[in-house]
UniProtKB/TrEMBL annotation:
One of the record's GO molecular function terms: 2-isopropylmalate synthase activity
SMART domains in the cross-refs: LeuA_dimer (SM00917)
Gene3D superfamilies associated with the record: 3.30.160.270, Aldolase class I (3.20.20.70)
Chain positions covered by the region annotation Regulatory domain: 448-568
Catalyzed reaction equations: 3-methyl-2-oxobutanoate + acetyl-CoA + H2O = (2S)-2-isopropylmalate + CoA + H(+)
Pathway info: Amino-acid biosynthesis; L-leucine biosynthesis; L-leucine from 3-methyl-2-oxobutanoate: step 1/4
Source taxon at top rank: Bacteria
Keyword Cytoplasm on entry: yes
Transcription in keyword set: no
EC numbers for this chain: 2.3.3.13
Function: Catalyzes the condensation of the acetyl group of acetyl-CoA with 3-methyl-2-oxobutanoate (2-ketoisovalerate) to form 3-carboxy-3-hydroxy-4-methylpentanoate (2-isopropylmalate).
Designated name of the protein: 2-isopropylmalate synthase
Pfam families: HMGL-like, IPMS_D2, LeuA_dimer
Biological source species: Shinella pollutisoli
């Protein structure tokens, strides 16, 4: 056995024999690690091409058109609409965009084509009449593809690119249109940097870009092969060494094979790239293209305007799912069903406190623990921020009652009620929806079905014999029978609990009291919370009434019922 094999390794071949490490870039004076992303790049959606070519069932007209409309609405200024020389569907779609697509003047339609004459000719036919379209031509330049796919050396591969560039420039000149051009040394990440540079410079020499009509040089991570820092090094190296950099737009086209497409793109932008090609939520070949929505919202959460409208993320998701016939997982950044939801107690507690602090501070700055973005900024609500299961704590339950029903539980009542909810979630092992939490609260503290005592009425008057003391005469029912009880105290609460203590023969006193209104307006109901001490401990009662004194006395009856229950 070789020393570096895990002794319990099973099945997989030895890594070092089957795979080799990706070479580092020799760039000791790299500058990108000190940079930040301070503005949005030029975005290009490749949903309708790279996304489409990876689908089980490629899009027909309707699915394409719906996606196209969304991309325009989101504010994309460059949209790769397909590979018109590859299929009639894509050709017809290009014609539809040009003739009926209502494409704004500042939007460039982009199409992909291989460096093959017959395909280039067909591409020009597809683009007739388009306003400033981008012709994106590509050929693979990687060492592996040179060897096994094309059987050509570097010169041969360079010639494929330069022949195509020449033909495209000739056709563009003859067509007289206002074309833009993009070249991709496809499989750039598998290409030696010197080779990629030589081919890109050779293409640029033919295209003759200017500061007014720049050549887009797209450096794709066709297959993501290394850690994101390596891609950043490659981009910085290319940006430093390309001829005539000011007439070029350096573009990234990352895929996500190692699951680090977002990081690679962000570091690539720090390394000097101007533009990003990607797809909504990262659909695309294999593990996908880089996810533009996540990139944009990552920028947004750093205070940088992403220049893309993601304010209706549910619409973006719906179109993604319709057009791609795929679904988005619950944990997908910014859009997944569960990404704004905390089930666990300490997260809920912190969110609850953070939301309260935001409400009271009345400042626009978003600072809520565990929520990197305000869900409302992308059209999501606060409804699902906190959901309750057996992992939840008092803060979460308090949040739900506050958020959904305007009930602000005092801290000790949160602790008490949490125990009750915890018993249920442990028993049932599933999530407890907000409605059930509220119903349980009402049943346990307010309506109390099956309990003995009910409050009916009361009046108070001064004790003629003791100054500052009032007599409370109250009517209650006990098991349905009307009872008149009497007690004394400094006010109605004091006097009423004294009356109940005498009647029940159980000493009780109020140790905490609070109340608040439940709705806005003059007919607002009040909710009162009393914490009552009795020989067996402390517990809460709650009353709800339009009259605040009545609510308080009902809360005492509620507590007394619970005392009786506790005493068996
Ligand atoms: C990384 C990317 O995403 S690249 C984009 C890939 N997208 C697609 O392929 C989707 C659309 N493609 C298609 O519908 C088809 O491939 C077509 C219509 C473009 C071409 O179809 P076909 O000619 O029948 O076949 P195929 O795709 O197998 O062609 C491969 C041939 O083209 C050559 N070739 C492949 N890419 C290129 C290129 N960019 N430039 C020049 N030649 C190329 C290959 O070397 C191969 O040559 P060979 O026939 O001499 O062996
Ligand atoms: C056509 C090119 C840009 C591509 O999709 C890739 O390299 O991934
Ligand atoms: Mg791609």
């Amino acid at each position: 056995m070789t020393a570096n094999i895990h002794p319990r390794r099973q099945g997989m071949p030895e890594a070092a024999i089957k795979y080799q490490p990706y070479p580092q870039v020799n760039l000791p004076d790299r500058t990108w690690p000190g940079k930040t992303i301070a503005k949005a790049p030029i975005w290009c959606s490749v949903d309708l091409r790279d996304g489409n070519q990876s689908l089980v069932n490629p899009m027909g007209h309707d699915r394409k058109a719906r996606m196209f409309r969304l991309l325009l609405d989101m504010g994309f200024k460059e949209i790769e609409i397909g590979f018109p020389s590859a299929s009639q569907t894509d050709f017809d779609f290009a014609r539809w965009c040009i003739e009926e697509g209502d494409v704004p003047e500042d939007v460039s339609l982009q199409v992909l084509v291989q460096c093959r004459p017959e395909l280039i000719t067909r591409t020009f036919e597809a683009l007739e009449g388009a306003h400033k379209p981008i012709i994106h031509f590509y050929n693979s330049t990687s060492e592996l593809q040179r060897r096994v796919v094309f059987g050509k050396d570097v010169a041969g591969i360079k010639q494929i690119a330069t022949d195509a560039a020449r033909m495209i420039m000739d056709m563009a000149a003859k067509a007289g249109g206002d074309y833009r051009f993009e070249y991709s040394p496809e499989s750039f990440t598998g290409t030696e940097l010197e080779v990629a540079l030589e081919i890109c410079n050779a293409v640029a020499e033919i295209v003759k870009p200017t500061a007014e009509n720049k050549l887009i040089l797209n450096l794709p991570s066709t297959v993501e092969m290394a850690t994101p820092n390596v891609y950043a090094d490659q981009i910085e190296w290319m940006c430093r060494n390309l001829d005539n950099r000011e007439s070029l737009i350096v573009s990234l086209h990352p895929h996500n094979d190692r699951g680090t497409g977002i990081a690679a793109t962000e570091l690539g932008l720090m390394a000097g790239a101007d533009r990003v090609e990607g797809t909504l939520f990262g659909n695309g070949e294999r593990t996908g293209n880089v996810d533009i929505v996540t990139l944009a919202l990552n920028m947004y959460t750093q205070g940088v305007d992403p220049m893309l409208d993601c304010s209706d993320i549910e619409r973006i998701k719906a179109v993604y799912e319709y057009s791609n016939e795929m679904t988005i997982p619950e944990r997908h950044p910014y859009v997944g069903e569960l990404v704004y939801t905390a089930f666990s107690g300490s997260h809920q507690d912190a969110i609850n406190k953070g939301m309260k602090a935001i409400r009271t501070a009345n400042k626009p700055l978003w600072e809520v623990p565990y929520l990197p973005i305000d869900p409302r900024d992308v059209g999501r609500s606060y409804e699902a921020i906190i959901r309750i299961n057996s992992q939840s704590g008092k803060g979460g339950i308090a949040y739900i009652l506050q958020q959904d029903y305007g009930i602000n539980l005092p801290r000790n009542l949160q602790v008490e009620f949490r125990e009750d909810i915890q018993r249920i979630t442990d028993e049932e092992g599933v999530e407890l929806p907000s409605k059930r939490i509220h119903a349980r609260f009402m049943e346990r503290y307010v309506t109390q079905p099956g309990t003995r005592l009910r409050f009916v009425d009361h009046h108070t008057y001064p004790d003629p014999e003791r100054k500052g003391v009032r007599i409370v005469a109250a009517e209650i029912t006990d098991g349905g029978e009307v009872k008149r009880i009497e007690g004394t105290g400094t006010g109605p609460i004091d006097g009423f609990i004294n009356a109940l203590s005498i009647y029940l023969g159980v000493p009780m006193s109020v140790v905490d009291y609070s109340e608040h209104s439940l709705q806005q307006g003059s007919n607002a109901a009040a909710i009162a919370y009393v914490e009552v001490e009795h020989p067996g401990g402390k517990l809460f009662g709650v009353g709800i009434n339009t009259n605040i004194v009545t609510a308080s006395l009902e809360a005492i009856v509620s507590a007394a019922n619970r005392v009786l229950e506790a005493r068996g």
